[in-house]
Amino acid sequence: MEDPYKTLGVSRDASQDDIRRAYRKLAKKHHPDLNPGNAKSEDLFKSVSLANEILSDPDKRGRFDRGEIDATGQERAQQSSYRDYADGDTGHRYRRDGAEPGGWNAEDFEDIFGSMFNDGKRRGGRTAARRGRDESYRLATEFLDAVNGATRRLTLPDGRTLDVKIPPGTSDAQVMRLRGQGGAGSNGGPAGDALIEIQVKPHGFFKRDGQTIRLELPVSVAEAVLGGPVEVPTPGGPVRMRIPPHSDSGTELRLRGRGVPAHGDLPAGDLYATLRVTVGTVDAALETFLRGWTPEHPTDPRHKMETVP
Amino acid sequence: MISIDVLVTQISGLSREDLEQWIQNDWVRPDDEAGGYSFREIDVARVRLILELRDELQVNEEALPVVLSLLDQLYDQRRRMRALSDALRRVVPEDVRQSLMRYVMELTP
């Protein structure tokens, strides 16, 4: 069977249009219906059609060019290609780093397993977009800043600074998430978040219990006995409070709404001041008075502690 | 296993001189025995490949080592990947392989 290019009279690099034109010209000339009874034309037409069948189809033409099919379109017995050997174990003969007879050693897989078990950075390549890592930080915060809210600047290990807005009523160990402030994403992925754990430092005299603030309020003997206005520190600043007469150590007074300020759905909490009577520096007058004083209702402050000897 | 004499007659377009140069360059690695070079099937296929690269794909002598090196790396990786998947098939239970597959497919855009 003749070379289809020769049959159509075109060069091997002819365009598909050239091939179509050459075929039409020859087909018109040799078409059996136009040449009735001409056996030679019929044969020629057959071979022209066959040649066209191969060359007009870029796929078949390519296969013919590569020698995979012959001029009749039949599969040609295929020669083993390099790939058949290189893909198999025989391929070790042409290892990149020199021939090494016995198969694999551990290093051959280190990069694969390395990347499998580390959350490793990918070395380039067309890889999926990946979100950056979340980075965790701790931020030590003054008690009152956590209660009232504040903005604090955090300097990250990489030199960036973050202004962290601490909302009112933040409690110890609360974690704040700053979107997009964590590790950079790769391959166009979004950055991770910065997770900031707030550590609230203890306060000198305030204690917090949810929305409630408690403190122990020292008062003088006179203030406890006679009552009167005193100034009480609260998270929002000092507030004047009237101590009722005849108060005692342990008396609990409530300042409504003076605890942790309202935040979110939570209303403002209350502040509880527990009185602690302090005697202070005693002068001669007090001493003299107490010596001469006989209580109208004598009480033993330790009566609850009486035990059977 | 065939000798260099047989090889150069078997492959049209291959000159003995070129082939010896390729062996010098370590592009082709036949067994070097007392009676001369001895080519295995893979060596023959590689000679054909180099010839094809040079004559049909117009890869010139300068670029050939680069192309061969890249090809060798490609096949190194393919063999490695195959060895790995063989190992996975033997060691890893079916359900874990399935979830590996799902995960890999999710990563692929």
Give a quick summary of the entry.
The complex is a heterodimer of chains A (309) and B (109). Chain A has 309 residues and is of the alpha+beta class.
Account of the protein in words:
The complex is a heterodimer of chains A (309) and B (109). In chain A, β2 (150-155) and β3 (161-166) form a beta hairpin. In chain A, 16% of the residues are buried. Chain A has helices spanning 4-8, 16-30, 39-55, 58-65, 82-86, 107-117, 143-148, 221-226, 284-291, and strands spanning 135-141, 150-155, 161-166, 175-178, 194-200, 207-209, 212-220, 228-232, 239-243, 252-255, 271-278. With 309 residues, chain A is an alpha+beta fold. Chain B is mostly helical. Chain B has 2 domains: 1-61, Multidrug-efflux Transporter Regulator, Chain: A, Domain 2 (Orthogonal Bundle); 63-109. Chain B has 5 helices and 3 strands, in the order βααββααα. In chain B, strands 1-3-2 form a 3-stranded antiparallel sheet. The longest helix of chain B has 28 residues, at 64-91. Chain B is elongated and about 55 Å long. Chain B starts with a strand and ends with a helix. The relative contact order of chain B is 0.09. The mean pLDDT of chain B is 86. Chain A binds chain B through residues 79-96, 99, 104, 108-109, 112, 126-129, and chain B through 29, 40-43, 45-46, 48-49, 69, 71-73, 75-76, 78-80, 82-84, 106-109.
